[in-house]
Amino acid sequence: MNAAKSPKYVWQILVAVTLTIIPATFYATPQSQPNIGVNGYFSADKVKRGTGQGVVVMEIPSGFHVHSNRPLEKFLIATQLQIDAPNGVRVGPVVYPRAILRSLKFSKNKVAVYEGKATMRFNVTVDAVFGSGSFELKGRLRYQSCNDELCFPPQTREVKIPFKVTGK
Description:
By secondary structure, the protein is mostly beta strands. The protein has one helix at 7-21; strands spanning 37-42, 46-48, 50-59, 65-67, 80-84, 89-91, 100-102, 111-114, 117-126, 133-143, 145-146, 155-166.
């Protein structure tokens, strides 16, 4: 049989021509990741030597969520906050907000997520011999944002948490 008259060859040509002439406006445009705000601060303007509390807040736009720090499925990526502190400052464990359980299209089971404002807190202890002045903690917040139908690649955002240390 002649290759030019083969049904498979004709089908391939038809598909190639069809895909070439369909305008780009008919294709679904991929949805972009949400703009999640991440801010860090101390609960007080000035920290005395001793203990204070640091806070990192995620602002998650409506229609999106991030997985909690303890997702219910092994394949989901947990939200994780890591804080680096200068010598003389100790950071306690991060306390994550309570997750919301949602039924989403991609999972048969409920999913543990954060929506809206998610606030993470941690205690900070400043040693008695630590100097006075302005300092900062550096944090890395890793999370995966999703909507009801798809998840975006995980992101790691840096967050700086400035603080001032005053006298005893």
